[in-house]
Design brief:
This protein is mostly helical. It has one domain (2-101). The chain is built from 3 helices and no strands. The protein is elongated, with a radius of gyration of 18 Å. It starts with a helix and ends with a helix.
Length: 102
């Protein structure tokens, strides 16, 4: 996913510059908004999904595949051992998402 986003980011920047050069502000804005969405996926949604998958795996008793990897999250992520730390992490992820949507 991250490699695809790098390629997409370069193409979006090209689109944004071309749109600005052509005076197409709505296309430039679209390119910016898609870029924000991609960064939100990279920084918030993807890591959150991995963390949730790991938490589910741990609650299910730590099911692992034959290679030792989690069936829900590969590779397994270390999670804070304290529930309060997990809540703080989730709140921080939500705050980052909210900031990127403003």
């Amino acid at each position: 996913m991250l490699e695809e986003h790098e390629t997409t980011a370069a193409r979006l920047e090209h689109l944004r510059r071309a749109a600005e050069a052509e005076g197409k502000a709505e296309y430039a804005r679209l390119a910016e908004e898609i870029g924000v969405h991609a960064r939100t996926e990279e920084l918030v949604l993807h890591p959150s999904a991995l963390m949730i998958g790991e938490a589910v795996r741990l609650r299910r008793g730590g099911d692992q595949g034959q290679d030792g990897s989690s069936d829900l999250c590969t590779p397994p992520l270390p999670l804070p051992s304290q529930p309060a730390a997990v809540r703080r992490t989730a709140l921080a992820a939500a705050a980052m998402a909210a900031m990127s949507w403003q």
